[in-house]
From TrEMBL:
It comes from the Eukaryota. Signal peptide: none annotated. PROSITE patterns: GIY_YIG. InterPro entries: GIY-YIG_endonuc (IPR000305), HTH_animal (IPR058912). Pfam families: HTH_animal. This is GIY-YIG domain-containing protein. Residues 223-258 form the GIY-YIG domain.
Length: 258
């Protein structure tokens, strides 16, 4: 465990607090860290090796808050790529693209996000042709003075229809074995030794007052998290509750009686 009142690391970020309580962030690497960036001679797709410097330079911009430290971290990141065999041409292009991206982000361009479609470029062209209407009608809105930023997101594919990321509830699932709507009341499950102790029906009859209480759901021996009622031959009633399946609770009651 590591603790400090002035700085703390979390993942790849180092958070510092000055004497005035202001927070600043910087890149953090473990003392045992080695330069494990993908080597340029690796047999990976060329586009991947071109995009890695861009993503790492973008990471420096997002994490490092101090402008002076940011330039130093950018130089250090480029040195790491040179050690891994990346040519200067790739690094210069990544730096240029990163600078253009920073300039565009500072201009408050409005992102237009939608699913990719082959006809989307015609839509973008139409919006660009009429964008001057917004610039003229709303000259005081800074976002309208710059062109919009088209952004694509992945459309729904076959995998989304076949694979579900959520594994669902951890509670056991009871399979419905009939197609019609289930009846209300208590019924035996027809697959355990306690079924002969279940009183079928959709009401509970009180033996002393004669009043009937309706059962508003469908319950069997496998139902858990239930409030149950046991009728004794002497005429008394016992009401209990259980988080286990009802058949397990009945089995324990019978064992206690024996």
């Amino acid at each position: 465990m590591k603790h400090d009142s002035h700085q703390i690391s979390f993942l790849d970020t180092l958070v510092n607090k000055d004497t005035n309580g202001n927070l600043s962030t910087d890149l953090y690497s473990k003392p045992t860290d080695r330069n494990s960036l993908l080597h340029y001679d690796s047999l990976h797709p060329p586009n991947m090796k071109k995009s890695i410097p861009k993503s790492q330079l973008n990471r420096v911009t997002k994490i490092v808050s101090d402008p002076a430290s940011k330039d130093q971290r950018m130089s250090e990141m480029k040195s790491k790529f040179r050690e891994r065999g990346y040519p200067s041409r790739i690094l210069d292009n990544a730096t240029m693209d990163h600078t253009i991206k920073e300039r565009n982000s500072a201009s408050s361009r409005i992102p237009f996000i939608h699913q990719y479609h082959p006809a989307a470029y015609r839509l973008h062209k139409t919006i660009r042709q009429h964008w001057h209407i917004l610039q003229t009608a709303y000259p005081t809105i800074n976002e309208f003075q710059h062109p919009f930023l088209p952004c694509f997101k992945r459309p729904r594919n076959i995998k989304d229809g076949l694979v579900r990321a959520d594994i669902g509830s951890t509670q056991p699932h009871t399979t419905q074995r009939f197609l019609s709507h289930p009846k209300t009341g208590t019924f035996p499950c027809l697959s355990c030794n306690q079924c002969n102790n279940i009183l079928r029906g959709n009401t509970i009859h009180h033996p002393h007052t004669g009043k009937r209480y309706p059962i508003n759901n469908f319950f069997t021996c496998n139902t858990n998290f239930a409030v149950y009622l046991i009728k004794c031959p002497c005429g008394l009633l016992y009401v209990g509750e259980t988080t286990q399946p009802v058949k397990s609770r009945i089995s324990k009651h019978k064992s206690t009686i024996r």
